[in-house]
Design goal:
It contains two helices and eight strands; from the N terminus they run βαββββαβββ. The protein is α/β, with parallel strands linked by helices. The strands form two sheets. It has a four-stranded mixed beta sheet with strand order 1-4-3-2, with helices on one face. A four-stranded mixed beta sheet has the order 5-8-7-6.
């Protein structure tokens, strides 16, 4: 059986992305690999083995065009309201908390936040299928 281990995103400014993911989700550098022309930075935290892989192309100076096919990354938290307050106080501008219903029952309580490159991250209240 396959095991999800990371998701890769291309970022323009390594330090700006490291600052955002560290502040927002407690993700720290697990490994940094430099190559001719690009660098790979793997981010993780103790909550999960899953990593976010940042790819920094050294010759890139223009922001990436995300297109209309990219969706989002998702994380779950124990206390959604507290996390929303914390991110707001950090000046990271999370969108308002929303509730998503299915067949009259609450399926998810969540909000979105964007990283410096425009990638959307969904922050979900932990529970149900969102462990």
């Amino acid at each position: 059986m396959a095991k999800a281990i990371h998701s890769m995103i291309r970022v323009l400014n390594e330090q700006r992305s490291l600052d955002f993911y560290g502040k927002a989700f407690g993700l720290n550098v697990a490994e940094r690999l430099g190559f001719d022309g690009f660098t790979l930075v793997y981010l993780s935290n103790p909550e999960s083995e899953f990593e976010v892989e940042l790819t920094i192309n050294h010759d890139r100076s223009e922001p990436y065009v995300l297109g209309d096919g990219h969706g989002h990354l998702a994380v779950s938290v124990d206390d959604l309201e507290a996390e929303h307050r914390r991110l707001t106080e950090l000046g990271l501008n999370p969108l308002p908390i929303k509730e998503f219903m299915h067949e009259g029952k609450l399926l998810a309580k969540f909000f979105f936040i964007q990283d410096p490159d425009g990638y959307k991250i969904e922050v979900l209240q932990r529970g149900g299928r969102y462990k």
